[in-house]
Design goal:
Elements lengths: L7 H10 L3 E4 L2 E3 L7 H9 L6 E2 L1 H7 L12 E4 L8 H6 L2 E4 L14 E2 L10 E2 L1 H10 L7 H9 L6 H10 L3 H13 L5 H7 L8 E5 L5 E5 L1
Parallel strand pairs: 4-5
Antiparallel strand pairs: 1-2, 3-4, 6-7, 8-9
Helix pairs in contact: 3-5, 5-8, 7-9, 8-9
Length: 220
């Protein structure tokens, strides 16, 4: 607002007169205006480092969707711990994820691009990165069956891009899910994924419990 020549005193006057409403400290809107989702995400990205649309949401936005939800719950990723503001959640059901998925070798903006139709829009994970983000949620916020169905749609994954991501992925669970499920589903890039992930597959069995108490076992 300062950039538009609006002083603190004038902003206060606008608030008192009802010409503006305060969403939170430093964030204002016109009364009765409908907030635009992508513009709000871009605003949040100035406050939460690395914020982008990721995981299942990014895959859906890029055309890989298994089920069509009545009201989509956005999955937003970022570099550091934080939380989404109440005013945003009131308009756009969402959850924020800040898992450490990749090593420092991977540039922070690798695999993050706006959608082709909105060149100046919010950053959205490309399918290869979104896949690994979704797999990190499997058994917790993401159902196993749906994740496999979505992954089955990813026939045209770019092996070179996925390879870079797998080499930098620090989560054994994610790497093994990507490799073993791609082989089980007969996806054309399965061999490329296994080769790229060789050093990050680990040894022996990996096991963990899903949110509903079932054990998830993954072999190397």
């Amino acid at each position: 607002m300062r950039g538009q020549g609006v002083s603190s005193a004038l902003a206060y006057h606008y608030l008192k007169s009802g010409w503006l409403v305060r969403l939170e400290r430093g964030v204002f809107a016109f009364p009765h205006d409908k907030l635009q989702r992508d513009a709000c995400i871009k605003l949040l990205a100035t406050r939460l480092s690395g914020l982008h649309v990721g995981g299942k949401t990014a895959l859906g936005w890029r055309g890989f969707r298994h089920n069509l939800a009545v009201r989509e719950r956005l999955v937003l990723w970022g570099d550091a711990r934080g939380k989404l503001p109440a005013w945003f959640l009131a308009q756009f059901p969402a959850r924020y994820v800040s898992k450490h998925l990749f090593s420092a070798e991977l540039p922070k903006d690798f695999g993050l691009k706006p959608l082709p139709e909105t060149a100046d829009g919010a950053l959205v994970s490309v399918p290869e990165r979104a896949l690994l983000e979704m797999l990190s949620d499997v058994g917790q916020q993401q159902g196993v069956e749906e994740a496999r169905h979505i992954m089955e749609l990813l026939v045209s994954i770019r092996g070179d891009v996925l390879g870079v991501l797998l080499k930098c992925c620090v989560r054994v669970k994610v790497v093994r899910l990507c490799v073993t499920w791609s082989e089980d589903l007969g996806l054309p890039w399965a061999a490329t994924a296994r080769k790229a992930a060789a050093r990050n597959l680990g040894r022996g069995k990996w096991s963990g419990f899903t949110r509903d108490g079932k054990r998830l076992i993954l072999k190397a």
